[in-house]
Design brief:
Blueprint lengths: L2 E8 L2 E5 H8 L19 E16 L6 E14 L11 E9 L3 E10 L7 E12 L12 E17 L2 E19 L5 H19 L3 E18 L5 E16 L7 E9 L3 E10 L6 E12 L4 H7 L4 E15 L2 E15 L9 H17 L6 E11 L7 H13 L17 E2 L2
Parallel strand pairs: 1-3, 2-3, 9-10
Antiparallel strand pairs: 3-4, 4-5, 5-6, 6-7, 7-8, 8-9, 10-11, 11-12, 12-13, 13-14, 14-15, 15-16, 16-17, 17-18
Length: about 425
């Protein structure tokens, strides 16, 4: 008395816009309450085999006009039927392959219960190769990010069922990344986007049914921070090589280790090592970082913005060690200036008053120089309270890096900043 069918779809095309997605998201009836899985309960139908060939799936962002597309979609599944939902089963083997954004390739194999309520259950092995990230460029504008390039690859397992969401990624790689974080005065859109990210991060940290683990992440490319003020300047890390191992949102999985190398402003050798203890509550981490022998002339845009001066020669190195435990932040930032040469009045078109200011800055640097090593050294203390539950740990790290490598890079030079040098070395 059971009807058994084979299903074949050739060249189906599914198109979704950001307007449609927004309307779906705001629908009063959520997806799990739609009850579409009960459709096949009307009659005892079993799908012996379902096949899709030559399909396309497109998502179009209305504001930017950019389209994200999967092409050459091929899907096959067998034994699609109702099973006893009280016992976790995956009766239907399946495979999905597709082209991603024109160049990448996706391959997913696994088993599923497509008719489970309130939503399908899936266990799958997934591999993504060479997916171009530049397609997301205009779409991430609201998050104050400028994304110009890079390719993504990953390999791992995913299990999704109504009572648990589990992802275990063995390897994630990003090559050729070109990413800038845009600073300056936030807009209403960027503020809302940031709030959504913080809320989502907190939900992931605190939800017991969500278990995420990333065994190995490697990101290579150019990373930057752009301050969108007049004059605009960019601080960047060229040939960045970021390695993250054993990240998880569960403390029992162990600590996360982070290592980063690159060329700060294209000239200074940068190295950072850190350890992160995951889990809800206050941030717990330790960071040891250094940037050695950056050309000061490469930082002239930053010097003009913060210190209103130009430098024709010299080197700067920055050393920092910071740790946070149970909501308390402790650490220091130590910049070293060597062979500083402020531009002479003949080289600068500034006013006489500003030329005098540059002259004083150079003389003060000379007074602080170490006679043997010819370096200007100072130490700035970093301390604070991180126990505020409304502050995301990622926000803490982001603000810390900004303070360490931008605000604190000018002790002894910018006399208009409120930060005071707490200790001076000779």
């Amino acid at each position: 008395g059971r009807l058994v069918a084979d299903l074949r779809l050739e060249h189906p095309s599914v198109n979704v816009t950001s307007t449609q997605a927004s309307a779906e998201n705001s629908d009063a009836v959520d997806l799990k309450s739609r009850g579409w899985q009960r459709l096949l309960e009307v009659y005892p139908l079993k799908i012996n085999r379902a096949v899709v060939t030559g399909g396309t799936l497109e998502y179009r962002d209305v504001d930017s006009g950019r389209t994200l597309a999967l092409d050459h979609v091929a899907f096959s599944a067998s034994n699609i039927r109702h099973v006893d939902g009280r016992v976790l089963r995956y009766p239907s083997p399946f495979r999905l392959t597709a082209g991603v954004f024109g160049k990448g390739r996706l391959d997913v194999t696994g088993h599923a219960d497509f008719l489970l309520r309130p939503h399908a259950a899936i266990y799958a092995l997934a591999e993504l190769v060479d997916a171009p990230l530049g397609q997301f460029g205009p779409i991430v504008d609201d998050y104050r990010l400028k994304l110009d390039g890079g390719t993504l690859g990953l390999k791992g397992q995913v299990e999704l069922r109504p009572e648990a969401y589990i992802a275990n990624l063995q390897h994630v790689t990003v090559d050729g990344l070109k990413l800038d974080v845009l600073g300056g005065q936030p807009t209403a859109d960027s503020t809302r986007a940031a709030q959504r990210v913080v809320s989502a991060a907190k939900a992931v940290d605190r939800a017991p049914e969500i278990r995420l683990r990333l065994q190995s992440l490697r990101v290579r490319g150019d990373l930057g921070y752009v301050l969108l003020k007049e004059p605009e300047f960019r601080v960047y890390l060229k040939e960045a090589d970021l390695k993250v191992s054993n990240w998880s949102n569960r403390a029992w999985q162990g600590d996360t280790n982070v290592a980063l190398t690159g060329l700060f402003m294209g000239s200074g050798r940068a190295r950072m090592q850190g350890v992160w203890h995951p889990g809800p509550g206050a941030a717990n981490f330790a960071v040891d970082a250094r940037v050695v022998d950056t050309r000061l002339s490469d930082l002239n845009d930053l010097l003009r913005h913060y210190g209103r001066l130009d430098v024709s020669d010299g080197r700067v190195s920055v050393y920092t060690q910071v740790y946070a435990r149970d909501g308390a932040l402790r650490g220091y930032v130590k910049p070293l200036f060597r062979d500083v040469d402020v531009l002479t009045p003949e080289d600068s078109g500034d006013s006489p008053l500003h030329r005098f200011y540059e002259f004083v800055v150079e003389k003060v640097a000379g007074l602080l120089e170490n006679d043997q090593r010819e370096e200007v050294a100072s130490v700035a203390d970093l301390s604070g309270d991180l126990s505020d539950p409304d502050i995301s740990a990622w926000q803490v790290v982001g603000n810390l890096l900004k303070n360490a490598f931008i605000d604190a890079i000018l002790p002894g030079f910018d006399r208009e900043r409120d930060r005071k040098v707490t200790k001076t070395g000779k």
